[in-house]
Amino acid sequence: MKKWGFFLPALMSVVMVGCSTTPEQPADKPDTSKAETTQPENAATTQPAEKPESELSPMEKHPNVKPKPMPTVKPKQPKAPETVSVGEKNADGKLILGQKEWVHIEGLDVNVVARIDTGATTSSVSAIDIVAFERDGKKWVKFKLAHDGKESKELELPVISTKFIRQSSSDETFERYVVEGWIKVGDLKVKTPFTLADRTHMDFGLLLGRSFFRDVAIVDVSREFVQPKVSLDASK
């Protein structure tokens, strides 16, 4: 019994010391991380400020009115160039010629003044250095056109016929070769027969007879230079 009386007070002291050293647990704090934020029921809802009517667009003023489509603007078409009449013609489309006309002779590259002779059958052109020769069994002629001091290069053409001309002052006859050549009057370009003759001493280096204008032109002897000059650049 004496032994238990000694140990009992010692045991009680140990228990008391253990209780005094146990740390106190902190009081639980409320968890605010999950707390819901509540809005007051009577809080006013913020509305955007209204624009004055003067600043509203047409769509905002009249939201139910559809905008009118923009009109389609068609590009202007360029005007067609006007047709310029080259020279006078009658109702049948034939050229009107005066008793004198500007004529372009192919090979001479110059406009010459021609006399329109209604009394002559065949046309005549001024030529020099006329020499006949034979080629492939046919008669040809070489010559140069001459007018107002200008000469063409030497030309060679087949002879389509020969005419004998008698001078009124004598019984002597002259042989004239007839060839075909190109001439242009106004907008008319034709191949017509010519007699080759030296006309350098005459007033007109070119005489146009009925064989030229019979089917393509009419002559008004009261007029001159009805048709314009031929452009030398356009004739090349």
TrEMBL record:
Pfam families: Zn_protease. PROSITE patterns: PROKAR_LIPOPROTEIN. Residues 50-63 have a biased composition (Basic and acidic residues). Transmembrane segments: none annotated. Residues 20-87 are annotated as: Disordered. SUPFAM superfamilies: Acid proteases (SSF50630). It comes from Vibrio algivorus. Residues 35-48 have a biased composition (Polar residues). Residues 96-229 form the Retropepsin-like aspartic endopeptidase domain. This is Retropepsin-like aspartic endopeptidase domain-containing protein. InterPro entries: Asp_endopeptidase, Peptidase_aspartic_dom_sf.
